[in-house]
Amino acid sequence: MVREVSAGGVVVRRVDGVWNIAAIEPQREPASGAADAKKKSASTLLALPKGLVDPGEKAAETAVREVREETGVTAKLVTKLRDIKYFYVRSWGDRQRVFKIVSFYLLEYASGNIDDISPDMRIEVQRAVWVPLDQAPKRLTYRSEREVVKLAQDYLKSHPELSA
User: Please, which residues have CB within 8 angstroms of residue 100's CB and are 6 or more apart in sequence?
Assistant: First the structure.
């Protein structure tokens, strides 16, 4: 069985007293028919930025890099939140079953403009947006990522020094 290791980030930024996180709307594969097109356009897929750990790279470095590439913002590491483990079957090529581990980190916004990403990255990311942190557990598509965001909320509540 193939094994993949990825890392991603929950980037937080406080604007006018409200915490926001950076989320991405990934590009979707073209729908195969009219029914698929209607179903896929009915809801927006929102996810946390993440990607494969490159050889020689640490997971935390990957999280910071993937956030920059997929959202356009630079962020600094605060803490590790959680590892998510799951299986999936590749929808391309060999259709192999894959065991995947994704390490998620809490990151604090440092600079940059959301959605200021390279044209090459538009193949993967349709857009990047700020989402109010209190809405993120309802708006993110994947249950495991919603749980990661709740861990970020708990961390921010117990570390008020980040609110400065």
Answer: 3, 4, 5, 6, 85, 86, 87, 88
Asked if 30 and 126 count as a contact pair (C-beta separation under 8 A), the reply is no
User: For the chain, what's the residue count?
Assistant: 164
Task: Quote the domain boundaries for residue 94.
Answer: 2-163
Q: Which residue, 34, 32, 13, is CA-closest to 23?
A: 13
**Domain containing 146 — which CATH number?**
3.90.79.10
The answer to whether 84 touches 62, Cβ cutoff 8 Å, is no
Q: How many domains does the chain have?
A: 1
Tens-digit pLDDT profile for the chain (164 aa)?
A: 899 999 999 999 999 999 999 999 999 764 444 444 444 445 789 999 999 999 999 999 999 999 999 999 999 999 999 999 999 998 877 889 999 999 999 999 999 999 999 999 999 999 999 999 999 999 999 999 999 999 999 999 999 888 65
